[in-house]
Design a protein that fits this description.
It contains 13 helices and 9 strands. The chain is of the alpha/beta class. The chain has 2 domains: 89 residues, no CATH class; 190 residues, Vaccinia Virus protein VP39 (Rossmann fold, 3-Layer(aba) Sandwich). A 7-stranded mixed sheet has the order 5-4-3-6-7-9-8. The protein has a two-stranded antiparallel ribbon with strand order 1-2.
């Protein structure tokens, strides 16, 4: 079911910010769109869309809800809603930005939309799992937009981070974000297939790799098919990249180093395939679980 997206027709009935939020909610619910790229319900998605279309912060003064909109503002909202519904385009791709660990990142369809629970670890300074005062060098794998590497640099000014990705297009976006956040002196971007060529050792390796199985990806909502498949799909079982990380990471970790890796819904499968590894599965308040921690000494147990 679709609503009319003729701005002239809609504008004759709707005037205020709240009018357009309520209209968005109705359109989203009638068209059964999928949430999961920053919001999880029609109301939050509508508020995010309308306020960003008006260049207003999410926490703006509630009195703005009664403000009347200019025609150009109405047209922008309607155009964004039409794109969200008819193309099932995730909202962050429409707005061109996404929040991660409280920081704003420029994104487009060259990169995955930032949403990793690793943001919570960064915000909590990895407590109580890691003493970040004893951590100096970090390797981030599959960096995409660069959000994890840049957030690490922003929260921990003493860190030097190497961030890798196999996609040159993704690294172009990451470079834009590195410059925008002024961390170019401490974040190095490297185009490579997972690990760097040099056998340098790091105190911390962080990864949010692809971990979706091919068949699972086929059945995902259309919103996910607007994201780069390279950043989501990892072979028949979804574990091709995770398997490589577990086998190769020990060469790149310092003796006291730590590996943190997100595997999402494949958590049980990973644990079953590697029964010899003493995974520490981390818990999160705002996000789903599916992130493990391993110490360098424990990775020596993997074949």
């Amino acid at each position: 079911m679709f609503y009319s997206f003729k701005s002239s027709e809609i504008g004759a009935q709707l005037e205020t910010v709240m009018d357009y939020i309520r209209w968005c909610v109705s359109v989203f619910q009638a068209n059964d769109i999928y949430y999961g790229h920053g919001t999880d319900n029609a109301w939050d998605e509508a508020v995010a869309l309308v306020l960003q279309a008006l260049f207003l912060p999410i926490d703006c003064d509630p009195r703005v809800m009664g403000a009347k909109l200019l025609e150009i503002e109405k047209q922008r909202i309607v155009a964004w809603v039409e794109k969200r519904v008819t193309q099932r385009m995730p909202l962050p791709y429409i707005t061109g930005n996404a929040l991660f660990a409280g920081l704003l990142f420029q994104i487009d369809q060259r990169v995955l939309i930032p949403r990793s629970p690793i943001a919570e670890l960064i915000e909590s300074e990895f407590s109580p799992h890691i003493d970040m005062n004893q951590t100096h060098s970090v390797l981030e794998l599959c960096t995409g937009s660069g959000c994890i590497a840049i957030a690490l640099a922003a929260y921990f000014p003493h860190l030097f981070i190497t961030a890798t990705d196999i996609s040159g297009a993704a690294l172009e976006v990451a470079q834009q974000n590195v410059m925008a956040h002024d961390v170019h002196e401490r974040v190095e971007l490297v185009k490579t297939d997972l690990f760097p060529q040099e056998n340098q050792q790091y105190d911390l390796i962080v990864a949010n790799p692809p971990y979706v199985a091919k068949q699972e990806w086929v059945g995902l909502p259309r919103e996910y098919h607007n994201e780069p498949a390279l950043a989501l799909v990892a072979g028949e079982e979804g574990l091709d990249i995770v398997d490589r990380i577990l086998k190769e990471a020990k060469r790149f970790l310092s003796p006291h180093g730590v590996l943190i890796c997100e595997v999402g819904a494949t958590q049980e499968t990973v644990a079953a395939i590697y029964p010899e590894l003493p995974f520490i599965w981390l818990n999160f308040e705002k996000s789903e679980d599916g992130v493990f921690l391993l110490h360098a000494k424990d990775l020596q147990l993997s074949s």
